[in-house]
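Running log. JK asked me to keep both predictions on one page so they can be read side by side. First protein, sequence followed by its tokens:
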Amino acid sequence: MSRSTDILLTSLAPAVWGSTYLVTTEALPAGYPITLAALRALPAGLLLLAVTRCVPPREWLGRTFVLGSLNFALFWVLLFVAAYRLPGGVAATLGSLQAMIVILMAWGWLGTPMRLGALGAAATGVIGVSLLLIGPEAQLDWIGIAAGLGGAASMAAGTVLSRKWQPPVSALSFTAWQLTAGGLILLPVALFLEPPLPALSATNVAGLIWLGLIGAAATYVLWFRGIARLEPSAVSMLGMMSPVTAVVLGWVYLGQTLSLTQSIGAAIVIGSVVVGQSVSRRDNSGLKKWRPATAGSV
């Protein structure tokens, strides 16, 4: 497939992730972040394992649990903490720092050249997200800030290590391994720290199905596929499309206003993503592509 097709397919993941806030606030019970994260990850991972019938070999178990922790367990828990303790705009802006962290980690761990253009595009994208989401009433909480930065660093490390550690299986199997590992990490923590869930309504179940099957299983297959085919800085820049989608969905479904400043911020984000892809294209030659799946894997 062409690079443009790879970018388009990968960008579908953060575009869908932008619906997470709407679904969480409108369709899920409040106050159970770890439990809901476990229910989002583990069933989706087990379903993909049943489809692929491919489990990680012994030598991949350690790496799988490290990646499952970084990309799902630790990242989702810190994301919820930041969301609870900070205004949504501040939390999303801290999360958008992931692109800059990925560039630094890829330089240190993968030897990817650090280009000023890529750093500039990432920094501009952070400014665009802040204009898009941060209002004058925003207040800071240092625990929330630490959680937001930690979540960005966790996802960034997971992105770079997912590029560095490419198993000889398909993206579908790789996603199944990580989702299951992340869910297994989250489940005992949820049972220990949170009360049992109340009886779930049909709306609650629909929300969990959306976040699990679409917002986790399907989208992370595209995300990890993109990580294998594109340079990490290009993939991380695409993540900035998530807050744009969230604002558009809030405007369409919740009747939220879209100010001129927010429109400018959205334009800056989209522009920075385009520029970031152009700069990162120069680093794409010579990077190892995803190896073909082994026999019997999907």
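And the second, directly underneath as requested:
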Amino acid sequence: MEFGIVETSSTLMTDFLQKCGGYAVVDGGFATELERHGAELNDPLWSAKCLFSSPHLVRKVHLDYLHAGASIIITASYQATIQGFVAKGLSEEEAELLLRRSVEVACEAREIYFDKCTKGSFDDSGNISRRPVLVAASIGSYGAYLADGSDGKYGDAVTLKTLKDFHRRRLQILAKSGANLIAFETIPNKLEAKAYAELLEEEEINIPAWFSFNSKDGINVVSGDSILECVSIADSCKRVVAVGINCTPPRFIHGLVLSIKKATSKPIVIYPNSGETYNAGLKQWTKSSGVVVDEDFVSYIGKWREAGASLFGGCCRTTPNTIRAISRAELGYRAKLLRLINTMPHEPNEATRLSELDP
């Protein structure tokens, strides 16, 4: 039975990418959109606060990204922890219900979107086909719960056992909540990656997962640990079906994808932030060099695809407009690829396709 579960998990992402034409679009920044719709997120729970204060806004943001072209929507559970909810005065039972609710709201949004497609409502690309959509249950790092800007440098007091004990119950709940996969996001160090990998095995989690790390220098993860060592941990776990980078400036992505390719053959997921800098003390984003507007994201996509990535989206400070631009770029790429294949007398290899398609 165990072998069967792992084998089924390993095919989900490859089958999904095949249905999407080889490349898929992930959604974008969540808190950014919640704030734009009026949510006040200056709170230790951050976007998870809206799970009980304004779930209709959570649903609205999911729908906005689906209409923008996303095929993977990530739940508002990044900052949702049992410990964090209890600290706000909720019971453990209420905390667990809110974790499940994060997935329920995303699934509700997907059904609303599918219903509109069935009724013939057109999206921005004039497409009424019912593309596959996955719901990914987000799990943020221990550092996200601390909200102290530690960047994964937890110190000797935080051990592998500490991290596993912290994440275990949340993982158990989200894995049985109806999500299609678990998204371990913004992983800051190899210790936390190891904790996740061991938990997936120990708990015999029967849905697949992806690991996405973040970097501030384009070489290592934010704690200073080697990206190669971190990716190797993910690669060795059979339940991990994709590996990548999130919440990292776009200018670092290309080199990081090339590094990831050295340590794994699994699909690579990338969803960078806008390039702005987060000030943990002020709890706000500030302008900095390297900020990327929506049009620039599109110009990067071809390079990231050529380097080896196959899932593209956005993180903090990106919007549905960003995802719409990425979606249109991917639709255009697939259309060109089909035309190229149809006009060639023989099956082209991937190198030929890329040289023909990308500037």
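Observation for JK regarding the second prediction: The CA atoms of residues 172 and 203 lie 7 Å apart.
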